[in-house]
Structure formats: structure tokens, C-alpha cells
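Entry 14. Structure prediction run on the chain below.
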Amino acid sequence: MYGMYGSYWLLAAAPVWAINVLFFIISLGLPALGTLKFEGKVTPFGVNVSWSGATLGDSLCLYSVMLIGWTIFRRGFVLPLWWTPSLLLWFHTFVFILSFFGWALFTMYTFSARQGHLLDRYHDLVAAPTWTYFIITLVPIIYLFGTWTELVAAHLLGLAWFGLLWFDLKTGRFVQPTWIVNNVVPFFNKCHK
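Output returned:
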């Protein structure tokens, strides 16, 4: 895999089942176990009211792009000559750093409005930067080497995710603790009277 770094190396080297298991563990497995172990909650971390950040949103945004990228890598392609190994290394390093610090800034400015537990930090500093890194580094591959069907699918799935995000922002579900207190708790209080 000479000249392949980061997400490109992983997609070129690993079978699709291994990639899916890895991202399942990062997005659902570790948060669920961490919630139980470190926060003492039986309710898994993945149970939330935000559609864009829930399993549905993660699947639309990440797994689809990953599977399209994996398909392109399996089909094979030749990198353009101007894509030298050193340029790819710098590109992957820059995107990784940008993803991490972007989410770190997001965490600094929004952490007090959210639950503020250990698993929120995990999401913002491990899972979300990983997703962002993979999506940003795979977009050029999809545009350069994807088929028309793969391009359309990637765009439609991306639009679906943005639609879920818009719905979350419009209905107030994006700030989950506030939405739960205002909508879910009163509902359960009425049910248990």
C-alpha cells in the first residue's frame, strides 16, 4: 500500500466487515459500555432524541460514505501523478488536526448546554473527529473515481443527513437535555399518575 495513508490505507487494506465492526465499536459499542461503566446509567448512550446524531444520522452520514469509498478502493484506481505520497501525508495530517481541533472548539462552546458527561467528551473528541476525518478525506476519492450512481447516492445521503440536522435544530432536539426535560419527562409524568 505504498503512498496510502490514513483512511485510504484502511479502505485499501481492510475487508468491509472489519471496517463496519470498527466503526460500530467506535460509534455505538464504546459509548454504550462507557455510559454503564463510568456514568452508572443502564440506558445506552445511543438512545437519544436527536435524529441527525442518532444511529440513523450516523449511518446516513458515515457508513454510506465509507461503503462507497470502500467500493471505489476495491474496484481500483490510479492516483494522479500530482498526488504524491508526501502530499497525501500532509493532506491526511492536516485534515486530522483540523477535525480534532474543530470539534474541540465546538465542545468548548457548547459543552455547558449539554449533559457534560464523560461520554459527551468521548463523542466530541474521538467519535465525531473520526467521522469528520473520514468524510473529508473520502470526498475527493468519490468525486474523482466514483461512478455516477455513487456520486448521486453520496449526495442524496448527505442531503438526508442535513435534513435530519435541520429538523433537529427546528424542533429543538439538537440540545437534547433541554428537549428531554420539556417533552419526555412531562409525558412520563402523565403516564405514571
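The chain has one domain: 6-191.
Filed with the rest of this week's runs.
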